[in-house]
Amino acid sequence: MGLLIWKLTKPEVFVSGVIHGRSFSSPTLQSVSVSEVVRSIRASGFVFCFRLKKMFIKVKLPWDVTIPAEDMDTGLMLQRAIVIRLLEAFGTKKATKDLGYLITPTILENIGEGKIKEQTGEIQFPVVFDGICFKMFKGEVVHGVVHKVHKSGVFLRSGPYEIIYLSHVKMPGYEFIPGEKPFFMNRNMSRIQIGARVRFIVLDTEWREAEKDFMALASIDGDNLGPI
Question: Does this entry carry the keyword Nucleus (predicted)?
Fold first, then answer.
């Protein structure tokens, strides 16, 4: 039995997945309570991703955790030391192109045999754990908050995504109103301004390798989209 760190609600129904970049669908798994699965092979082992509600992804992946010799103990004390180190290591890795933003580990599934590192005397354990990641997908409807307004459009934040661009071209009916605190407004007096919550659809996303983060393009051209 794995060590429970945090547990989410039941995911949705399995539909399709990707293996080595190629899509597949499996009618035999339609009843499984997961909506999308992605499995990729990495040098360190397997990475399983299960699509939860909207942008959240449940992942199962390997990790190497290093424990100082003085922290070594048996049973739950060892598990506790590993979990603490895992949380620290997970927190320093901001995001990956495949998985999105790394939010938190949830369940420690397995602890492998420890190996002593000769240079430091520390003990390295291979572990497998479940975790939660956050990644936007094209076509999803998302809520965001405006934090910059320009004549050409606005920038929003949503979860760990800091750069979501909504062009004025993708907000039909809205006109730019300049001033000390500029905003966009339509004929119904609906405003898109700093601090406004906006429901938008994701047009596309882009991974920035140097910054280790994502950008996204948004649109409110559609039904039930716009300021909330």
Answer: yes
Tokens 């070594």 found at: 72
Structural contact between residues 159 and 143, judged by C-beta atoms closer than 8 angstroms: no
The answer to whether 105 touches 87, Cβ cutoff 8 Å, is yes
Residue 23 CA to residue 166 CA, distance in Å, equals 30
Q: State the SS3 of the chain.
A: CCEECCCCCCCCCCCEEEECCEEEECHHHCCCCCCEEEEEEECCEEEEEEECCCCEEEEEEEEEEEECHHHCCCCHHHHHHHHHHHHHHHHHCCEECCCEEEEEEEEEEEECCCEECCCCCCEEEEEEEEEEEECCCCCCEEEEEEEEEECCEEEEEECCEEEEEEEHHHCCCCEEECCCCCEEECCCCCEECCCCEEEEEEEEEEEECCCCEEEEEEECCCCCCEEC
- Residues β-bridged to residue 37: 17, 50
Compute the distance between CA of residue 218 and CA of residue 203 in angstroms, rounded to an integer. 5
Q: Averaged in consecutive runs of 10 residues, what is the pLDDT profile of the chain (228 residues)?
A: 32 28 29 30 38 71 85 72 82 85 88 89 90 92 97 96 98 97 97 98 96 96 96
